[in-house]
């Protein structure tokens, strides 16, 4: 199974941490920016307020003449500090200060106001300087404007703002790169563990999860899984030996018993009742042998022994061969058996077990489909994988029973009159699991359609 890096817990955790960390840095740098801007604005306002109070004292002591002289002196002495002064009469005509004219259209209503002051630059171009100012109303309609060039403060604030944005951006970038590296590293390790587990499930019990020696949670999990696989390998070996012994110990006596019964059935001196008993015993013995063989096949499939050394199998060729094999039996039962195949239907698995799947499904159809019916075997390409389908127009299986019939020794009441062990479909399900195929029992309207979807070879 391929892991999508964008859907992993490591990616979600890294993304969450990136968002939280970036928001935290943004709040911190934003607070620093706003605090710096507030401090500079308050400092400018404090300087302007102090200037305004000092000039108000001069007006109270020397009147308009003393205030005008003070403005002239301050303009000449402090011009390089960026201070701006203007005294106007009721008609807004200049009577003192270093501004040429009133910079507003009308009288500002707010205590604090701002305007741009134009000046000649070094290259004889026009440079605009932002000015923050306050206006005081004096007796007889005179007004005093005191301001300060805040160009340097604005540049500093712009620099701080740019640094803040760069800091947030770099923080997010570093977080994304770090989170991506961490997510990919964890994903690669989990992907490796998942592939190893798939190989173990597929029958390769020699595989183990890597232990790096870092003693982290992955090492703890790997050691636990490896210990479990060691025990599983031991149990599988014991189980395999048990089944091999059972097959060897039971088959030979059963074959000897069958031979003796067949000899007894052929004895011309035996009366009719004895011969009938022997024939019935032979049928029961055949049922036992078939059940034993199927159970061994299911155990072999469930233990994943047969697919450990799998090879490419052409489903189209397999379907054609099996259809040819069962064509005489279908003709004898007056059934139509057809096969439809497409090219490039390769899968990877055990050919003998896959042939057993087709055989079981076709034999079920031969057993339950009435004369004049139809059986279809199909191998086709579906997307990146292949599909094997066996369909008929027989009685089918009710939808409520389709999961139940895949269990061993389960037979429907309608099949009670026919011979069988109830292991055919359970063997098909075991082989499908062994090959990581998706098995589905569907309605063929009428009849049953069994579909196995395989991944690409």
Notable characteristics:
Beta-Lactamase, five-stranded antiparallel sheet, alpha+beta, rod-shaped, 7 helices, 18% strand, single chain, 54% helix, five-stranded mixed sheet, Heat Shock Protein 90, 457 residues, 3 domains
Can you describe this structure?
The relative contact order is 0.07. The protein has helices at residues 9-77, 151-201, 217-266, 272-302, 315-332, 351-368, 424-434; strands at 83-88, 94-97, 112-120, 126-137, 143-149, 311-314, 336-341, 346-349, 374-382, 385-392, 438-443, 448-454. It is α+β, with helices and mostly antiparallel strands and 457 residues long. The strands form three sheets. A five-stranded antiparallel β-sheet has the order 2-1-5-4-3. The chain is 54% helix and 18% strand.
Topology:
Elements: H1 9-77, E1 83-88, E2 94-97, E3 112-120, E4 126-137, E5 143-149, H2 151-201, H3 217-266, H4 272-302, E6 311-314, H5 315-332, E7 336-341, E8 346-349, H6 351-368, E9 374-382, E10 385-392, H7 424-434, E11 438-443, E12 448-454
Parallel strand pairs: 7-9
Antiparallel strand pairs: 1-2, 1-5, 3-4, 4-5, 6-8, 9-10, 10-12, 11-12
């Amino acid at each position: 199974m391929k892991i999508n890096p964008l859907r992993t817990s490591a990616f979600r955790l890294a993304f969450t941490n990136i968002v939280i960390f970036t928001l935290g840095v943004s709040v911190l740098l934003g607070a620093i920016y706003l605090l710096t801007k507030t401090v500079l604005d308050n400092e400018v306002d404090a300087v302007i307020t102090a200037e305004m109070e000092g000039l108000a004292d001069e007006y109270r002591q020397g009147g308009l003449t003393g205030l005008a002289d003070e403005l002239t002196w301050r303009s000449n002495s402090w011009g390089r500090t960026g201070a701006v002064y203007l005294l106007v009469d009721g008609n807004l005509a200049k009577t003192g200060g270093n501004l040429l004219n009133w910079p507003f259209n009308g009288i500002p209503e707010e205590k604090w106001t701002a305007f741009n002051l134009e000046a000649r630059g070094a290259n004889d171009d026009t440079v605009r300087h932002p000015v923050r100012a306050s206006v005081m109303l004096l007796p007889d309609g005179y007004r005093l404007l005191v301001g300060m060039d805040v160009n340097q403060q604005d540049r500093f604030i712009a620099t701080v703002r740019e640094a803040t944005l760069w800091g947030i951006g770099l923080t997010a970038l570093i977080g994304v790169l770090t989170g991506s590296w961490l997510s990919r590293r964890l994903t690669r390790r989990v992907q490796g563990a998942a592939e190893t587990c798939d190989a173990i499930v597929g029958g390769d019990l020699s595989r183990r999860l890597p232990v790096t020696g870092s003693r982290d949670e992955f090492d703890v999990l790997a050691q636990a899984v490896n210990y479990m696989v060691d025990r599983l390998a031991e149990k599988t070996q014991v189980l395999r030996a048990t089944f091999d012994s059972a097959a060897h110990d039971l088959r030979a006596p059963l074959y000897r018993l069958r031979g003796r019964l067949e000899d007894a059935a052929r004895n011309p001196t035996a009366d009719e009742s004895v011969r009938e008993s022997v024939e019935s015993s032979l049928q029961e013995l055949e049922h036992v042998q078939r059940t034993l063989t199927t159970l061994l096949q299911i155990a072999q499939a469930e233990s994943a022994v047969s697919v450990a050394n799998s090879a490419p199998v052409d489903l189209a060729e397999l379907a054609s061969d099996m259809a040819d094999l069962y064509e005489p039996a279908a003709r004898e039962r007056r059934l139509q058996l057809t096969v439809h195949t497409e090219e490039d239907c390769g899968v990877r698995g055990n050919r003998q077990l896959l042939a057993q799947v087709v055989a079981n499904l076709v034999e079920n159809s031969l057993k339950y489909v009435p004369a004049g019916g139809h059986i279809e075997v199909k191998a086709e390409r579906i997307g990146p994988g292949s599909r094997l389908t066996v369909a008929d127009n027989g009685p089918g299986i009710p939808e409520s029973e389709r999961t139940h019939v895949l269990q061993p020794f389960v037979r429907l009441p309608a099949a009670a009159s026919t011979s069988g062990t109830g292991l055919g479909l359970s063997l098909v399900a075991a082989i499908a699991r062994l090959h990581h195929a998706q098995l589905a029992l569907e309605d063929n309207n009428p009849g049953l359609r069994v579909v196995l979807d395989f991944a690409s070879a």
